[in-house]
Amino acid sequence: MFKNLFKKTPLEIYAPVNGRVIPIEEVPDPVFSQKMMGEGIAIMPSNGGIHSPVEGTIIQVAPTKHAVGILAKDGTEILIHIGLETVALEGEGFTVRVNEGDRVSMGQLLIEVDWEYIGTHASSTVTPMVITNSHDGNKQYTFTEEKEGIQGQTVMITASGK
User: Name one GO cellular component term (predicted).
Assistant: First the structure.
């Protein structure tokens, strides 16, 4: 009778940007495709900046501005890595709008991206979104079957307690 009373609501992680949804296994970088950093999904951006996929706290902003880490309220750690081989751009093409320690709301703009610049100067614009603490085994993850992601509307990952 009380079993469902204390059951936690699953965490829904939304698309951080508009674009084509890609399974993490198809990302052309073994660090992501082999899930070395954790479970995840990717998106091939079509337009727009990177927005927070959840309500949470910024726990990391890469010095090279190409990645941001968010701690969701349930303890899920989400890394959004903008493009591949983008660390070499040394921040060019990115305008960060948040700082470590900032509380963010779902849909809040995190990083403005010059996709034309990234597309010309990086190996790919594909943007993996990884659960960096998924190896803990505390949750199970379900990934969208959608082929197109709409920022703030498409649920990309659902994280449920085991």
Answer: cytoplasm
